[in-house]
Amino acid sequence: MKIAISSEGDNLSSNVDSRFGRARYFVVVDTESMNYKAIDNTAASSAGGAGTKAAQLLLDEGVDSIISSNVGPNALEVFQAAGITVYKSINDTIEKNVKEFKKGTLEKIEFPTNNGHHGEH
Fold it and tell me: Which domains occur in the chain, in start order?
């Protein structure tokens, strides 16, 4: 399974970024092999619509699930329409979040966890 995690850095020992649309990176991990790649979140500097743009970036990567904390309504709607499950991260490293995901202990996010920022900074 291919999962994407919002991250402050570009490797498995990086901490999770609690923001989704404005996260600096997304670390995409193959949960079977633990191979990963970091994607620079080009949507982070968008004036508006960062969550939706970031969601599209990850859809283009073909991810199966997302791990983050604060996901707005527009991004969540994109994922739900695509059949991608979003999970709430724990405040720890990317690697630890993947381990918890594999154990099935992460909570599903079914409703927006923030209201979006509509271009605010």
Answer: 2-103 (3.30.420.130)
